[in-house]
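Deviation from plan, reported transparently: erythose-4-phosphate complex.
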Amino acid sequence: MKFFIDTANLDQIREAQALGILDGVTTNPSLMAKEGITGEENIKNHYKAICEIVDGDVSAEVIATDYEGMVREGEALAALHSQIVVKLPMIADGVKACKYFSDKGIKTNVTLVFSAGQALLAAKAGATYVSPFIGRLDDISTDGLNLIAEIRHIYDNYMFETEILAASVRHTMHVIDCAKIGADVMTGPLKAIEGLLNHPLTTIGLEKFLADYKKGN
Ligand code: E4P
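Because the crystal trials were delayed, the predicted structure below was used instead.
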């Protein structure tokens, strides 16, 4: 399973990259705003800065909600760097734009996906990635992980090449459960990734090894 970090924070991206396990980055307009990145030029420069840190795909989201606007914005974003993936909302014009970009060989990530039907449409439109938001489904007492399982089942039935990018991952157990189900990618905050490191027996075991070493040296 690929690991993407879901942030526009350059320090956190550097930290995940330094761990040696990072495969890419997802961002969205809210994450950009959280870092105080505003204005078209600043946002574009920030995407370029992210691409300089990581080796993998970097999702950059369009703001337009009409087909022509999405195509215009997506083309400008894709021209910024070879690692940019055009992120499009799951609406009718987003599906049309997805088809346009996939026909041109430009990578896409269809976002704000909350049902298996939406994921089926994204795959039919040739999306590179589909982003089901598991945390936001959990927030409304719906089983987000079950959606990942449904999409996995459907995509496997027809050998769709669209990668399931489990998004809105909130914690470490989400990461593990997504891996069990067979999500191709997960995107989450740094703390969900770093949480995978933790086990009390590792801490206790290391302390004992070091203490025993000191006794003999
Ligand atoms: C996905 O690409 C989104 O950026 C993201 O995962 C949303 O997560 P949230 O529900 O924690 O805001």
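The beta strands are 2-6, 24-26, 57-61, 84-89, 108-113, 129-132, 163-166, 185-188. We consider this an acceptable substitute for the interim report.
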